[in-house]
Write a structure and sequence with these properties.
The chain is an alpha/beta fold. Helix content is 47%, strand content 14%. It has three domains: 15-159, Rossmann fold (3-Layer(aba) Sandwich), CATH 3.40.50.720; 163-275 and 297-302; 328-400, Orthogonal Bundle (Rna Polymerase Sigma Factor, Chain: A). It binds NADPH dihydro-nicotinamide-adenine-dinucleotide phosphate.
Length: 401
């Protein structure tokens, strides 16, 4: 069904939402919340990488004004699929940036990987409020992204469930009295496995997350605990918290998503079902709250919640991410690029699961030795380091095999 786009009403009650990465898992959650409250939300622009069929379908169903596909070879197909619909189309980086900078009340950044950096910056430079799922943009270019958001005077709204949890319990007025910010981790499918079993895990096993249904890259990152490392770096930028005040606790039930401990001993926790529509609904309604047909939890049915320390020996990716944050400069960006290469190689059957931390660590060391791990002063420098790290990782991948 095609719905027409009425635009923002005079009272400003209808929010215009753009979704970058609309065809993915977070994109699905965002479009579900939007579709269930047409009186509150209208779609402005949508983007995808190459999935033209799904992009065109949701653009028509939600009455988008603009749709863009990153893969330029899919431009013609998108144009044909939306011909006569009134939806304007674009392609390539310029198409993504056009979508990101169209005037909107909120731009949901749900592209996966470093590919989200430039569209995120384009949204901020256009003055749009960003709701960010794309943690890699903060890992790679956190200082620059946060500086742009600060200039704008609009907070980045976190979509990541842990960071959304912390956003809701973080008392900014008393930030000096915050002792610790804790991010929970489910522990992934290999939480109880031995190191040698983890190293030999197959893509099918690694994609079998116990609690969350997500895109393949973040699911593999959850299995290696790299995701938790990326999230600690993300929290460092979002909340301007030093590494010493950030901690990770394994909580297999994924009910508590984040905790903040204050100097008076109070520990505030955020609870909710493992349903990404909850943090998305929070972002879209912010600073208000709005009803959403999301999953609920019953404490009585849950019975008990358990917690354990993360094991940095069996899960070296978490150790590497914490070291990258400690070292700072360009190292988190280098680590992210190497991890993207490693995850793709693992999913393509070119490398074992155990090869992921090996490739990431060797790439970090090589880039450091080459003197290429300094802090970036611009997005261009971030992208240049990302590119050279990928080249190093691809070369090392041939040797690891
Ligand atoms: P998916 O793989 O499900 O979706 C990724 C989206 O990005 C798709 O729309 C895809 O388009 C698009 N995309 C992929 N590559 C590019 C590219 N090179 N240029 C432009 N667009 C691209 O990912 P998720 O939705 O799972 O994750 C998105 C982000 O949100 C990640 O950073 C992840 O870490 C984060 N996140 C995800 C959570 C989840 O529950 N899934 C939870 C918390 C955070 P196409 O469909 O055409 O390939």
């Amino acid at each position: 069904m095609q719905v027409s786009n009425p635009g923002t009403d005079a009272a400003g009650a209808v929010k215009r939402i753009s979704v970058l990465g609309a065809t993915g898992s977070v994109g699905d959650s965002a479009l579900d919340i939007i579709a269930s409250s047409p009186d509150r939300y209208q779609v402005e622009a949508l983007t995808a990488n190459a999935n033209v069929d799904k992009l065109a379908e949701i653009a028509l169903a939600r009455g988008a004004r603009f749709a863009a596909v990153a893969d330029e070879s899919r431009y013609q197909a998108l144009k044909e699929a939306l011909s006569g619909s009134g939806v304007t189309v674009g392609a390539g980086l310029s198409g993504l940036e056009e979508a990101a900078s169209m005037k909107a009340d909120i731009v949901v950044g749900a592209i996966v990987g470093a590919a989200g950096i430039q569209p995120t910056m384009a949204s901020l430079l256009a003055g749009n409020q960003v709701a960010l799922a794309n943690k890699e943009a903060l890992v790679c270019a956190g200082d620059l992204v946060m500086a742009e958001a600060a200039k704008l005077g609009k907070p980045i709204l976190p979509v990541d469930s842990e960071h959304s949890a912390i956003f809701q319990i973080f008392d900014e007025a008393n930030r000096g009295e915050i002792e610790e910010v804790t991010i929970t981790a489910s522990g992934g499918p290999f939480r109880t496995w031995q190191a040698d079993e983890i190293a030999a895990a197959t893509p099918e096993q690694a994609l079998n997350h116990p609690n969350w249904s997500m895109g393949s890259k973040v699911t593999i990152d959850s299995a290696s605990l790299m995701n938790k490392g990326l999230e600690v770096i993300e929290a460092h930028h979002l909340y301007r918290m030093p590494r010493a005040k950030l901690s990770v606790v394994v909580h297999p039930q994924s009910i508590i998503h984040g905790l903040v401990t204050y100097t008076d001993g109070s520990m505030l926790a955020h609870l909710g079902a493992a349903d990404m529509r909850i943090p998305v609904a929070h972002c879209l309604a912010w600073p208000e709250r709005a009803p959403a047909n999301t999953r609920r939890i019953s404490l009585i049915e849950l019975g008990r919640l358990t917690f354990e320390a993360p094991d940095l020996t069996r899960f070296p990716c978490l150790r590497l991410a914490l070291e990258a944050l400690d070292e700072g400069g360009g190292l988190p960006n280098i680590m992210n690029a190497a991890n993207e290469i490693a995850v793709a190689a693992f999913l393509a059957g070119q490398m074992t699961f155990g090869g992921i931390p090996t490739l990431v660590e060797r790439t970090m060391l090589e880039m450091q030795k080459a003197g290429e791990s300094g802090a970036a002063g611009s997005i261009e420098e971030v992208l240049a380091t990302d590119k050279s790290s990928r080249l190093v990782a691809e070369r090392l991948l041939e040797r690891i095999n």
